Amino acid sequence: MSAILEPLSSVCLLLGSFLLLTGALGFLRFADFYARLHACGVTETLATALIILGLMLQATDSALPQFKLLLILLFVLFSSPTASHALAKAAWNAGVRPRDRRGRRDIALPPGDR
Amino acid sequence: MDVLSYFNYWAVVVLMMLGFFIVIARANLVKKLIGLNIFQTSVFILYISAGKVIGGSAPILSDDVTLYSNPLPHVLILTAIVVGIATTSVGLALVIRIHAAYGSVNQNDILKQDQQC
Amino acid sequence: MLSHIALLPVLLPLIGAPACAILRRPVFAWGFASSVAALAFLSAAILLKLTFEHGVIHYSLGGWAAPWGIEYRVDLLNALVLLLVSGIATTVLVASRTSVWHDIAENRRGLFYVACLLCLAGMLGIAATGDAFNLFVFLEISSLSTYALVACGRDRRALLAAFNYLVMGTIGATFILIGIGFVYMLTGTLNMTDLAQRLPGLGESRTVFAAYAFIVVGVCLKLALFPLHLWLPGAYTHAPAIVTAFLAATSTKVALYVLIRFSFSVFHLESSRLALSLEAVFITLGIVAVFAGSLVAIFADNLKRGLAWSSIAQVGYMTIGIGIGTAAGLQASLIHLFNHALMKGTLFLALAAIAIQVGGNEFSKLRGIGRRMPWSCAAFTVAGISLIGIPGTAGFVSKWYLVTAALAGEQWFLVLLIVAGSLLTAVYIWRFVEIAWLDSAPEKATGGDGEAPSVLLAATLMLALANIYFGFDTRLQVSASGGAAAALLGEAAQ
Amino acid sequence: MELLVNIVLLILLVATAGALVVVRGLLASTMLTSVYGLLCASFFVTMDAVDVAFTEAAVGAGVSPLLLLLTVAAIGRGEPRPVGALPVLAIVLVPVTAALLIIGTLDMPPFGSPDAPAHTHVAPRYLQLSGEEIGIPNVVTSVLASYRAFDTLGEVLVIFTAGVAVLLILATPGQRGSARPRYVPDNHRDPHTILQIVSRILIPFILLFALYVQFHGEYGPGGGFQAGVIFASAIILYGLLYGLPTVCRVVRPAVVEWLSAVGVLIFGITGVFAMLSGRPFLDYSVFADDPVTAQHIGILVVELGVGITVASVITVIYYAFANQFETAES
């Protein structure tokens, strides 16, 4: 039993950590606010899910911690995308517009918007 | 090992001094409160470090644990955290009123305005 | 109920404050707060009587024995401070109505009295507890409510004064917390008696030294001892008149109590090697405080600000008493603590009355005020004479004991300096007397005229009379402070 | 391994504090404060202080950044300024204090040693006897709500004082301390539809979690204070998304103000009960014949008082701050 679960759990944890790392890298290196938000917002949801899954596979001997981890997972699945959405919306309303690396506008803007 | 056994305390000293520096050196009143917050939190870290026993576990009684960390500093710091947030909220309330009265939250500007009148 | 007497002075305002918050009408809040303070005063009086008769009274909160639970340990010193603080609070709160109605907006008055009760509960809690951490908690209750009370001042400068007080007060409290943390790490206990027994066993530990240093600096910030006094003039000048009267008469006194309690009961200042240098520090800072405070007070153009600086000077006298380091010096310090509360209570209450009539305390507004408000100004003058230390007033008793203690310690220069300090006091009190009584009133009287409202006037006169009474009948403060000083040094000698 | 995590967290804390020294903008400072609080909470977990970590996460990473944000919203972010004169006072005072602190640490018992006086004098009794005397597994709750319950009463009074002080400072003329609800998010131009729907799903669960934390505090980390903060956070979330008038209609300011006093009174009167039967203040043994049951009842009631006061005071403070925000706007 644990011979299968142990490596599976390790793989989940490692993969999750790797995703977090790529997210952080993107956050540091990408050109503008939206790209950076995209980098960490997208990776974070999956990474957290993988890490929690890995932890659930670790604690197979009792149901309570697994149940709690499941609740945390559900909460993260709700809150993390919502937070990204709120950030992007706030940035747009504050007048932040997508730019490329050289600071040029990256997308066509709606009429009347500078 | 000797350095490691005092590492926590010295980290506390560094944090405390950074907070203290912000309180004294920054003219912005909100910044001062943030510095005060760091200053207080560093003391919490001191207390909690003092309560740790290496190899111990959280002080929640259980049959298969023999060594616990010290619960008393935890209780004290719970109280101190509440004191900290209470101070912060009163300070921020004062900042809002000061901004309404002077139009600025910079200590130097405010003192200048007071001298003029 | 008598078995709970040690707790009652603290418990009454502590439960009274939230109860007061439920009352909706400000008049009820005023009546309720005053009666709670009066009951606390009554129980403090009984407590003092009991400590005279039976010595130390212990009270274990929650039924858990010290050092595991929190203990109230009330000896003569605690009882004296409790009596003083609750007595001043009662007088000021009863007298406060007109002044508060004048200074505070209608929708804030109820909350104002809640904050007053919280402040009172905090100070009484500091004075009664025998547990170092509990002291910190109650210190914060009193400090937080004080910041809000100071910010209630009419002038916008009150806000900045309150903010500065908040920052410095929090630094002070955090320093005290660091000190308590250090001694906790060394001894494992927070109970003051237990600490006092365990600290000597540690020998000359550098951590104990640092702990004491942090606590002293923290307490001196609250005490406004000379270089750490920066928050005081602004806070006292711009706070509502009633708040200044209350704070000036109580908060520095409680801080001084904490300094004495930690120095002598917990750390055994005089039996340690550090004693000599620290005593020199206290005396030097005390002298500088006396002269700096008095000089600024002489040149202030606002009487309230002048008296605030005078408070800094008077704190100097008290620390000189501690610095002398003998039982007589300590006793002098405690007597001055008691008497100074009476003087500053009277002075600031009289100023509150004047502020209602003329709308401020600037000297320019006070010309000829003695003719218009003879009784308030008479009370002010009596307290001023007491502040100088002329025989027949309580202030003379303080100075007398201080000079005697200095002479017994063969510190002749101190005597000279104390007398010189009194002369400086005479200068700024004379300035008031001259303007109030000898100047003719301005042609066009500013503001309303006539005497202060009767309740306020009665309270002011009562405190002024107390200044004279305790100048003749010195039994209460002398015997209580003598017993307390002996106990403090006796404990340490064991 | 534990030690390594400890060291890394402390270094991160120092880095965050250093960033706070350098950063000038208030919004960035607020975010860094939140990061600092979260790091602190993680550090407390590695130090076995789970209750403290819970509280610090709620307060340091939650409430205090929220209050900072509301303040920044009311006063504006403030433009970065050029560095002024050299802060002489700071350069003198900071090293002196640091030196004193370092001197203080020299004779301290080494970190984590089980023989340190703090672990051998008073605390062992709590660990050894609280199982029999109080009968609940979480020793921190035992000490907090029974052995040192008076400190906790003081703590509740501190938070109550904060509520009174904030109302006293921020009360606008013409009303009795209560918030006058004005803030409405601009829903026509920019509807918060997604946020509102998600929050509508989450809020019941947040409230449920608050209740769990309130009543589970005897067995695991948690208790009245943490539960109060979580409860208040649900109300605040609702207020942020639906506007102050809506939330004030659901949770009336006057009621919240009243409740903040009631919580303290519940705690205080629990203590007075014992006095009426001739026992010391806050002695719970009067509540039942069996001492352990009596302690249970006492702790439950007292924690309830803490929870009510904390939840209502934080809501009161939020109302007062959010109201200022709109006053500054208009």
UniProtKB/TrEMBL annotation, chain A:
InterPro entries from the UniProt entry: PhaG_MnhG_YufB
Keywords: Membrane, Transmembrane, Transmembrane helix
Entry keyword annotation includes Transcription: no
Pfam families found in the cross-reference section: PhaG_MnhG_YufB (PF03334)
GO molecular function, one term: sodium:proton antiporter activity
TM helices/strands, residue ranges: 36-57, 69-88
Name of protein: Sodium:proton antiporter
UniProt source species: Parahaliea aestuarii
UniProtKB/TrEMBL annotation, chain B:
Annotated TM spans: 6-24, 36-55, 75-96
Membrane topology: Multi-pass membrane protein
NCBIfam families: PRK07375.1-6, PRK07375.2-3
Main location: membrane
Keywords: Cell membrane, Membrane, Transmembrane, Transmembrane helix
Organism of this sequence: Parahaliea aestuarii
Keyword S-adenosyl-L-methionine: no
Subcellular location: Cell membrane
Designated name of the protein: Cation:proton antiporter subunit C
Xref: InterPro entries: CPA3_antiporter_subunitC, NUOK/Mnh_C1-like
A GO CC term attached to the entry: plasma membrane
Keyword Membrane carried by entry: yes
Family the UniProt entry places it in: Belongs to the CPA3 antiporters (TC 2.A.63) subunit C family.
TrEMBL record, chain C:
Main location: membrane
Protein's membrane topology: Multi-pass membrane protein
Protein's cellular compartments: Cell membrane; Membrane
Residue ranges of the TM segments: 29-48, 76-98, 110-129, 165-187, 207-232, 239-260, 280-300, 312-335, 341-361, 373-392, 412-433, 454-472
Pfam families xrefs: Proton_antipo_M (PF00361)
Coiled-coil intervals: none
InterPro entries: CPA3_Na-H_Antiporter_D, ND/Mrp_TM
Domain NADH:quinone oxidoreductase/Mrp antiporter transmembrane: 131-425
Domain of life: Bacteria
GO cellular component, one term: plasma membrane
Keywords annotated in UniProt: Cell membrane, Membrane, Transmembrane, Transmembrane helix
PANTHER family: NA(+)_H(+) ANTIPORTER SUBUNIT D1 (PTHR42703:SF1), NADH DEHYDROGENASE (PTHR42703)
Family from the record: Belongs to the CPA3 antiporters (TC 2.A.63) subunit D family.
Protein name as catalogued: Monovalent cation/H+ antiporter subunit D family protein
UniProt lineage: Bacteria, Pseudomonadati, Pseudomonadota, Gammaproteobacteria, Cellvibrionales
From TrEMBL, chain D:
Topological category with respect to the lipid bilayer: Multi-pass membrane protein
Transmembrane residue ranges: 57-76, 83-106, 152-172, 193-213, 225-244, 256-277, 297-321
Superkingdom of origin organism: Bacteria
Annotated keywords: Cell membrane, Membrane, Transmembrane, Transmembrane helix
Keyword check for Membrane: yes
Every MrpA C-terminal/MbhD domain range: 11-75
The keyword Ribosomal protein is annotated on this UniProt entry: no
Gene Ontology cellular component terms for the protein in this record: plasma membrane
Location of this chain's protein in the cell: Cell membrane
InterPro entries per the UniProt record, alphabetical: CPA3_antiporter_subunitB, MnhB, MrpA_C/MbhD, MrpA_C/MbhE
Na+/H+ antiporter MnhB subunit-related protein domain mapped to chain residues: 194-315
The MrpA C-terminal/MbhE domain, residue ranges: 117-170
Family, as annotated: Belongs to the CPA3 antiporters (TC 2.A.63) subunit B family.
NCBIfam families assigned: PRK12504.1, PRK12507.1, PRK12508.1
Name this polypeptide is given: Na(+)/H(+) antiporter subunit B
